[in-house]
Amino acid sequence: MGHIRFMTEKSLLELLSSPAGLAMYGLIMFLEGTGLPGIPYEAFFLAAGVLIASGHLALVPLLILATVTNTAGTLVGYALGFWGGRPLLERYGPLNSFTFTWGGRPLTSLVHGF
Fold first, then answer.
1. Do 69 and 27 contact (CB within 8 A), yes or no?
2. Global pTM?
3. How far apart are CA 28 and CA 43, in angstroms?
4. Which of 41, 105, 51 is nearest to 73 (CA)?
5. Distance CA 36, CA 50 (A)
6. Quick one: three-class SS letters along 27-95?
7. How many C-beta atoms lie closer than 10 Å to residue 12's C-beta?
8. So what's the pLDDT on residue 94?
């Protein structure tokens, strides 16, 4: 039988302050920038704040990384909305599973005036 191995504080600290951890911060900020719901970027940057305060991470490189990756994610999210638009939402997004109604009419048509 194998044993379950949990991360210790030291191994988690090493992971988050390593290049892989920086890549993880960048990926989280990129995904948050695209507008995907449920991305817990606040928790990652709370951990980053602790690592910065303890001297394991540098503030300026992390701020540059977060700004660049979040901006890139925002541009990707904008492009998805611009070129994919409503058909993309109807096929893969929340409009695929439900529609809000008000008085028997879809809420989107009420908002747009149709």
1. yes
2. 0.68
3. 10
4. 41
5. 26
6. HHHHHHHHCCCCCCHHHHHHHHHHHHHCCCCCHHHHHHHHHHHHHHHHHHHHHHHHHHHHHHHHHHCHH
7. 13
8. 57
How is the chain split into domains, by residue range?
A: 9-112
Task: Decide: helix, strand or coil at residue 17.
Answer: coil
At which residue do the structure tokens 């879809």 appear?
Answer: 106
Report mean pLDDT in 10-residue bins for the chain, 114 residues.
67 80 90 83 85 89 93 92 76 58 59 44
> What pLDDT is stored for residue 42 in this prediction?
85
Q: Are 51 and 16 in contact (CB under 8 A)?
A: yes
Residue type at 19 in one-letter notation: P
Q: Which tokens sit at 79?
A: 């492009």
